[in-house]
Amino acid sequence: MLFPSKRLRSRIKTKAFPCLRCGAKTVTFLFWATLYVVVMKMTILKNSKNHTVKDWSTVPDNYSKWLGPVLGEDDEIDTTDNDWLEPDNATIIELDKRVDRVQEICRLRSLQTKNINSKEFFVDHAHNLVWCNIFKAASSSWLYNFNVLAGYEKKFLARTRHTPLTLARKKFPRPSEEELRDTINTPGVISLMVVREPFVRLLSAYRDKLENITPPYYRKLARKIVAEHREAATKVLGEIESFGPTFYEFVAYLIKKYISGTTTFDEHWAPYYKFCTPCAANFTVIAKVETLSRDSTFVVQQLGLGHILGRKVRNRRMRLRTVMNKSRDGKNTSALLKYYFGQLNMHMLDKLLEIYGIDFEMFGYDSNIYRSYVRK
């Protein structure tokens, strides 16, 4: 059956044109959909492909800003396995010797006392753990541990603006001397103290709190030190351009306080034997920053805390550095000690050892090397 050409064109116009319009829309949709997929692959999907899930068992970034020390880390570089392994016999023997040495020096120096300075102790009754927080001696590492033991989520610790110390004190308020003594003497409780080479800690505290930009409290103290000792320091060191006190001035300030009969020092440079009163507290574990990994492992294993703390804590800045003897600005610790102690004379060193000598003796550190650093 033949249709007139005019009628045929009319049918094509009424039926074909809507189909063409629909097809054009389909092609347009497919074009933009394809473009969207291509863009996604080039950006978001590509980035997520290389993205690893954050391991919250490591010290979170938020903790890095509170780590503080500028002369080496206050934590030992941990190159071992990340699991809490059983301590070997050598570690156990060494820890026992440290406790015996402390008790022996307490007797020899007649330092036995019944008064415990409970101000900086943390008591975790739930986990049978007592710790004296010495600033600049693994304080960041163990504050993190205590916050995890307190029940804080690791994701929360990574994001919070509160300092680790503030968080820990909310869960573990300062104990009374009676509470602290009763807890330490309870069977099964481990009392922990972490120390560091005394003059390394002293220099770290000076560089962090006084040498450069400092918090308001230490800024005021820095001005006081400069006002009292700048004139004498200039005669020895020559013209001084820094606004903060030199190490010479800082040590002169400490010596002046000591000679005047002052028995209390700032918490960041107070002698260990006075700050944590080990002759009265009778610690069961004396850990050292230099062997922090194995010493902490012993405590964790003894108390069965591995399942709570998770894998070993290693902060990012520690992983970036492979040696213990580097400062935060990359300078060699020995070189820094020589430079700063080179500002002192033998008399000043002797006076400084009158303040910190018991710490060297009690915890098995050698101070003789500093005699080769000072000015002759």
From TrEMBL:
It is a single-pass type II membrane protein. The keyword Glycoprotein applies. It is found in: Golgi apparatus membrane. One of its GO terms (molecular function) is sulfotransferase activity. Its main location: Golgi. It holds the Pfam family Sulfotransfer_2. Its EC number is 2.8.2.-. The chain crosses the membrane at residues 20-39. It is an enzyme of class 2 (transferase). GO terms for cellular component: Golgi membrane. PANTHER family: CARBOHYDRATE SULFOTRANSFERASE. Belongs to the sulfotransferase 2 family. This is Carbohydrate sulfotransferase. It comes from Euphydryas editha. The lineage of its organism: Eukaryota, Metazoa, Ecdysozoa, Arthropoda, Hexapoda.
